[in-house]
Every structure is written in C-alpha cells, then in structure tokens.
Write a structure and sequence with these properties.
The structure holds 2 protein chains of 2 kinds. Chain A is largely without helices or strands. Chain A has no helix or strand. The radius of gyration of chain A is 6 Å and the shape is elongated. Chain B has one domain (about 5-205). Chain B starts with a helix and ends in a 9-residue tail after the last helix. In chain B, α2 runs antiparallel to α3, α2 (about 35-45) packs antiparallel against α5 and α7 (about 150-175) crosses α8 (about 180-205). Chain B has 8 helices and no strands. Chain B has helices spanning about 5-25, 35-45, 60-80, 95-110, 115-130, 135-140, 150-175, 180-205. By secondary structure, chain B is an all-alpha fold. Classes of the chains: A little secondary structure, B mainly alpha. The interface of A and B includes residues 1, 3, 5, 9 and 10 of A. Chain B: Belongs to the ERD2 family. Chain B: It comes from Chlorella variabilis (Green alga). Chain B: It is found in: Endoplasmic reticulum membrane. Chain B: GO terms for molecular function: ER retention sequence binding. Chain B: Keywords: Endoplasmic reticulum, ER-Golgi transport, Membrane, Protein transport, Receptor, Transmembrane, Transmembrane helix, Transport.
Chain lengths: ~10, ~220
C-alpha cells in the first residue's frame, strides 16, 4: 500500500 | 516476497514443527513454557483477524491458518492431554501474563498507525510477540537440564527473527514505501532478547555440551 502499512507479512 | 522472508517463515514453521514433534513423540512438554505458547496463540489470533476481510496471497492465508492451528494444538496438548500435561513444569513457569499483556495493550492504544479495533489489535500482536518469549527464557534459566529439542526450538525461533530483520533491511532498500517503524523497533527488541541465549547456545554447541544457561 502507498502508506507502507500493508500487513503483508506473517 | 523475498528469500529472506521465505527463510524466516520456514524457520518459524520448523520451530513449531520441532516443538509439536517433541510433544507428540516423547509425550512430554518438559522445559516448555505454557505461558509463552498461550501468548503466541493470542498473538496469532489478534494479528490474523484479517483472514476475514483481507486477502494477500494463498501462501499468506495458508501460513496464517497453519500458525493458528498449530499454536492451539500445542496449547491443547499442554493443558488437556492426560499424559503430556503431567510433564508441564507448572511450578517453574511462573511468569505473570499481566506484566506482558498490559504494557503491550497500553502501548498499542497509544502508539499505532490508525485508531481502529483491528489496527490496534494488530499493533498489540506485534508488541506482544516481541516479548512473548520471555517466560520461555526464564523457564530455561531455571531448568538445570535443557533438552536438545527445547534448545533447538528456541534457536529456530531466533533464526526466524534474524531472517525477518534481513527481510526488512532488504525491503527497506528495494521498496519505495517501506517504512514500518513499529515493526522495526519491536522486531529488533525481540531479536535482541535472543542474543544472550544464542551466546550460550553457540558456546555449548562448540564445546559439544548440553545447553546450560547460567543462573
């Protein structure tokens, strides 16, 4: 996401 | 997804498998802190609520479900399995939950990216994961004989942390918008907690001795 806060890790 | 992250995840999975295998094969959970295991289960529940409303990849969802299921399976063995629960070091595993949960919850309420229920719970899970190993480390320090599987379990968890830090450094260098300072700071603290353990783990490994932590 643009704000770098996508929770794409585990 | 980069190689560091994949290695981190695999070490995490391996650590859980080693623990489950130890419990199932030896019918014993000696040396394992139930407090740490329950805190991990809580961490996963709070963090993976997004299973219900966001989808990243099949890999992510699969791993989330696996971590949740294995965490609850370990807790179930330690609490309810007739044989296994008798091997639990109840008197030694005295760390108080509230000392870890309360500060993490407070911090998550204050330091978060967005004040929404799921975001605060996610942040809480990040803070809590950083310190959830403490009851396990305290228990190991009290235990005279740490068996190899327990030592390896903690070492694998440490390796998982190490690789995640490499993953963040890599992402920081390669992705324009990768600025997750909450994750960074918590992650570094969490990994630092293992430093002391790793020092003695390496020492004993070099000397080919059983792991013993100094009192």
């Amino acid at each position: 996401a643009a704000d770098g806060q996508a929770h794409d890790e585990l | 997804m980069n190689l560091f992250r994949l290695c981190g995840d695999m070490f995490h999975l391996l650590s859980i498998m080693v623990l489950l295998l130890k419990i199932r094969a030896t019918r014993s959970c000696r040396g394992i802190s139930l407090k740490t295991q329950e805190l991990y289960a809580l961490v996963f529940v709070c963090r993976y609520l997004d299973l219900f409303y966001s989808f990243i990849s099949v890999y992510n969802s699969f791993m989330k479900v696996t971590f949740l299921a294995t965490a609850f399976s370990i807790v179930r063995y330690m609490r309810y399995d007739k044989v296994v629960k008798q091997t639990y070091d109840r008197e030694q595993d005295t760390f108080r939950y509230v000392f870890l949960i309360a500060p993490c919850l407070l911090l998550a309420l204050v330091l978060n990216h967005r004040f929404t229920l799921t975001e605060v719970l996610w942040t809480f899970s990040i803070y809590l994961e950083a310190v959830a190993i403490l009851p396990q480390l305290v228990l190991m320090q009290r235990t005279q004989n740490i068996d190899n599987l327990t030592a390896n379990y903690v070492a694998l968890l440490g390796a998982y942390r190490g690789f995640y830090i490499l993953n963040w450094i890599y992402r920081f260098a390669t992705e324009r918008h990768y600025r997750q300072w909450i994750v960074w700071i918590s992650g570094v603290i969490q990994t630092a907690l293992y430093a002391d353990f790793f020092f003695y783990y390496a020492l004993c490994w070099k000397a080919n001795k059983r792991l013993q932590l100094p009192a």
